[in-house]
Amino acid sequence: MKKIITFLAAVFCFFSVSFAKNFISKRFFEIQLGVPVDFANNTMNFDEIFVKDLCIDLKKIADDVPDEGFNLIALTNPYFGINFNFGPVHVGTNLELDVYENLSVSKDLFDFLGKGNEIGQELNVDVKNYTDIFVALNLDVGIEFKKFSLFLNPSVFVPVMSSSKTNIHLAFVNDENGNVNFSADTNLNMFSNLMLNSSNQDDMINDLIKGIGFDLGGSLTFPVNKFLVTATARIPVIPGSYKYNMNMTTNTGYQVSLSDFSTKDNSNGNSATVSELSEKQYINRPLKVNAYVDYKMLAGLLEFRGGVGLGVYHPFLEDAFSYPEYYLSAGLNFLDFLKAKVSTEYTNQLFKHQFAADLNIRIIEIECGVSLQSTNLAKSFSKTGFGGYAVVSFGF
After folding, report:
1. What is the C-alpha to C-alpha distance for residues 391 and 39, in angstroms, rounded to an integer?
2. C-alpha neighbours within 13 Å on the C-beta side of residue 198
3. How far apart are the first and last CA of the chain?
4. 22 Cβ partners below 8 Å, 6+ apart?
5. Can you tell me the distance from the alpha carbon of 214 to that of 158, in angstroms, rounded to the nearest whole number?
6. Which of 71, 267, 344, 345 lies in the 20 to 30 Å Cα band around 53?
7. What is the Cα–Cα distance from 191 to 210, expressed in whole angstroms?
8. What angle do CA 186, 197, 214 make, to 5 degrees?
9. Which residues lie below 8 Å from residue 255, measured CB to CB, with a gap of 6+?
10. What are the φ and ψ backbone dihedral angles of 120, each rounded to 5 degrees?
11. Which of 159, 169, 224 has its CA nearest to residue 193?
12. CA 14, 29, 233: angle at the middle one, nearest 5?
């Protein structure tokens, strides 16, 4: 009987400690792996594309494309990290791959494909592409005081590839003689620290190291009445740089006679070069400044968060542009053991509506989320884009 009572007391003590918020939410040591993926456009619903019997209605697509043209954004940011928590002190590091793709095509192309054009009317189409790939090593150091917490996140990053200066211009015109005149001016401009035709791994590693940049992030959290305010930022300090430039230009022109389908070549020549830059081409990761307000009800069972911010693509460079950000969420939190949350946000130029859940049993925590998204607010409630993420943390 005494053994049974002792065993039950031990089990009771274990679960009493296990389900205490601080015990559940903080592992002394953890390994973390996360994989987020976002893919969205502003026009086409994916359930109309991925079907057994595909029917492409070009006129409908032309009507659906907004005045600013077709836009597609894809991004992912997988990472692997190790964290330590010593009482109020946190120390962690993670290695991440940051991939960003933004493609835009002017509306005129879709109007031409869906509705055609009139005699003598010149149709101009512009295609622009932005691609950035970084590898970053981040350090996360923080301390929690009684009324506020402070975290610093210095990062070193290596720019792997960028194509932010890629442009394509197409022109069509039907003349009164029954000819179709077509011209294309293409400038594909890609910067990299990898010489793709090199077989010397030591040289490739040295080129990557020489292009290293540095940025500094951080966050400050403090209470204001019944609210908890958090300010976060990531500021470029030292830009990364590229060593190689891969450039391809084309100037192509054709005249096609609709009477006999004969063609006349009016091209002015093409060129393609891969060269080492005489001057460094600098690049920064996006600048981020955000502020959040958290509010909890019913002893933390209900959690609410709202935030606003600003992002700057390629900050301090000639092709920089800024965009606003916002975030709103509401969730349930059962002693940090089980969480569920719905949120809406505009981040990285994507409107996103997400449901997320988190299961934490101390030695392992699994968090995942799915979202509908788009580069257009009205389309973000349809199926023009999908996203998801999964984070697995385990330790003791």
Report:
1. 18
2. 16
3. 33
4. none
5. 9
6. 71
7. 14
8. 80
9. 179, 180, 181, 182, 263, 264, 266
10. 80, -5
11. 159
12. 120
The span from the CA of 308 to the CA of 325, in Å, is 6
Determine the length of the chain: 396
For 223-268, what is each residue's pLDDT tens digit? 999 999 999 999 999 999 998 888 888 887 777 776 665 666 666 6
Report the alpha-carbon angle 387-390-391, nearest 5: 145
pLDDT tens per residue, range 77-102: 999 999 999 989 999 999 999 999 99
User: What is the biggest distance separating any 2 CA atoms in the chain, rounded to whole angstroms?
Assistant: 105
Structure token pair of residue 208: 């990557």
Q: What is the CA radius of gyration of the chain?
A: 27
Tokens of 301: 């069972």
pLDDT at residue 61, rounded to an integer: 82
Q: Which two tokens stand for residue 112?
A: 């031409």
Q: Please compute the mean of the pLDDT values over residues 117-129 and round it to a whole number.
A: 79
d(CA 127, CA 168): 5
| Residue 18 binned pLDDT confidence (cut-offs 50, 70, 90) | very low
CA-to-CA separations, 282 to 189, 250, 286, in angstroms, rounded: 14, 26, 13
Strand (E) or helix (H) holding 132: strand 122-144
